[in-house]
Write a structure and sequence with these properties.
The chain is of the alpha/beta class. It has helices at about 15-25, 50-60, 80-90, 95-110, 125-155, 170-185, 220-230, 240-245, 250-265, and strands at about 40-45, 65-70, 160-165, 190-195, 210-215.
């Protein structure tokens, strides 16, 4: 059986993977320009360019060492982000006692809280909403501090991968950019990778700890290497046409190769620029 095209989607991402490897293995030296040591890489690009695939590859390369992966569009609220990290930590055999005790304390306090609003001029409902929002912000910050303290206490250096930033609701995006990411980057043991069509905007000094890489389309050479790795003899002279038709977009190329292989196995014809070339109409 011919290998799946999925196995070859990083064929032109060696530079980015090498940069990630250097970052996770960073030492205490600053770079030649005297800049702050990098702790994070942000991957930016349009849909289908391979951001999520690249981020997952980074996660898999570090999974045995205690990596964490968050599919942000599937996570509804800030405390769910922290709970997901805590659950993965337990799976990585990393104890999170401070996080668990902090969460238990807040749960107990929530059950015991009673406020008398009889003498408050502001409408009770408005006051309660404001108080609850302030309380949630404090609780989330405390939980975040406790959890990250537990993660860095482990002998392994945490690698945090955050995917799909642009798909988060605005409150989540604000919290990630203003709170969680600065908290992660303030702990030098942690490496951070973020992928998205849009990326968080950080303030100083955290901007100098992060490098943004815009993922380019695959070039003709990369498409040729992909064809050769798949062993598709019939396409060996078609790399230029295939790259041009699909714009070098890995997702479209992947779909094209899958359909071409399926068509070859069933005896049907399939050309690089045909009607069913893998692109949406």
């Amino acid at each position: 059986m011919r290998e799946s095209a999925d196995r070859h989607r990083h064929i032109d991402r060696a530079e980015q993977l090498e940069a990630a490897a250097r970052l996770t293995a960073r030492d205490t030296e600053r770079d030649g320009a005297g800049h702050r040591e990098r702790q994070g890489l942000f991957f930016e690009g349009p849909q289908g360019i391979g951001k999520s695939s690249l981020l997952w590859e980074i996660y898999e390369r570090h999974a045995a060492d205690g990596a964490y992966f968050l599919d942000l569009p599937r996570i509804p609220a800030e405390h769910h982000v922290l709970e997901s990290l805590a659950m993965q930590a337990r799976g990585n055999q990393v104890a999170v006692p401070s996080y668990e005790s902090t969460r238990t304390r807040f749960a107990e306090q929530s059950g015991q809280t009673h406020v008398d609003f009889d003498n408050v001029r502001m409408r009770n409902s408005t006051f309660q909403l404001l108080a609850a929002a302030q309380d949630r912000t404090l609780q989330t910050a405390s939980l975040s501090d406790a959890l990250l303290g537990n993660l860095v206490a482990d002998a392994r250096r945490p690698v945090i991968c955050l995917d799909g930033f642009e798909a988060c609701a605005h409150p989540m995006r604000d919290w990630l950019g203003r709170s969680l990411l600065p908290n992660l980057l303030s702990r030098r043991e942690i490496s951070v990778f973020v992928a998205g069509r849009q990326l968080p905007s950080l303030t100083r000094p955290y901007t100098s700890a992060v490098r943004t890489l815009v993922l380019p389309p695959f070039d003709v050479q990369a498409v040729q290497e992909w064809i050769e790795s798949l062993g598709v003899v019939s396409l060996k002279d078609e790399a230029t046409a295939i790259q041009q038709v699909h714009g070098g977009i890995p997702e479209l190329l992947d779909e094209f190769f899958k359909l071409h292989i399926e068509s070859a196995e069933t005896g049907a014809g399939y050309s690089p620029g045909g009607r069913d070339d893998g692109r949406e109409g």
